[in-house]
Amino acid sequence: MFHYMITVSYDGSSFNGWQLQPDNPLITIQGLLNYELSKFTGEDINIRASGRTDSGVHATCQTADFFCNKTLNLKNFPKEINRNLCDSVRITGICRVRDDFHSRKSALSKTYSYFVSLSDKPDVFFRRFVYTPCMPPLNIKPNMCSSPDIEFMKKCSRIFIGKHDFSAFTTDKSPDKSHVRTISDINISIIENTDIMRIDFTGDGFLYNMVRIIAGTLLQAGYGHFTYDDIKHAMESRIRSNAGVTLPSNALFLTDVEYDSNFFI
């Protein structure tokens, strides 16, 4: 029995998220990959990922692992299986891992990136993958779209660094689930030669809609709708209605997952 980890990139626009839906498996990323990997190996494959991205969310570096009896040619495998995958999903790499490796539980950190167009008319090629603040839910006036206070957003982002209860920044209301997470870094930048803002969130894990709500809160701060103390109060209150809006899923990407190198064979 061999244990493999794959890296996957996908455009999540036409999928109902990562997690398998047994009644209609091929509308999810996990269901599609289970199907294609099972067909390729001749075995019943069930992959497990570093995180379950929601409907409409994308990935440039999702990781997933699976066991199988077949010895796979690591060099040729991505090219061979990608021939059978749809245009919106690609396996970009594969490696052997130890038997005790788990894509989610073994992850040291994950990074999600949210992309915001600071133009009321975003680039024609990128428009499907960015959020424009003059659109709902923010509805910023078009003449104000290009001028959020980025330095103030950076200041406010430091509120989220560290270990906190993020109950105000999630729509997950599971009573028995801990809402404590650790964010190690939030980086806000403008992509060179564009009007696209990129907000990177790195942490040990993220709650349902957490990144999209924090991104919305920071943008609202940048446009003058939240003060620094408002955000601190939201964090301390643990009340969802005190935090900002949930931004759309189309501009969110899983961009990195880090592991201890000792897991790799």
The largest sheet, given as strand count, sense and whether it forms a barrel, is:
9 strands, mixed
Please provide the ordered H/E string of secondary-structure elements: EHEEHEEHEEEHHE
User: What is the total number of structural domains?
Assistant: 2
Cα Rg: 20 Å
Question: In words, what does this structure look like?
Answer:
- This protein has 265 residues and is an alpha+beta fold.
- The protein has two domains: 2-106, 2-Layer Sandwich (Alpha-Beta Plaits), CATH 3.30.70.580; 109-256, Alpha-Beta Plaits, CATH 3.30.70.660.
- 19% of the residues lie in helices and 26% in strands.
- The protein has five helices and nine strands.
- It has helices at residues 29-41, 77-82, 150-157, 210-222, 228-237; strands spanning 2-10, 48-49, 58-68, 89-96, 109-117, 162-165, 180-190, 196-203, 252-258.
- Strands 1, 2, 3, 4, 5, 6, 7, 8 and 9 form a nine-stranded mixed β-sheet that branches.
- Helix 3 crosses helix 4 (210-222).
- The longest helix has 13 residues, at 29-41.
- It starts with a strand and ends in a 7-residue tail after the last strand.
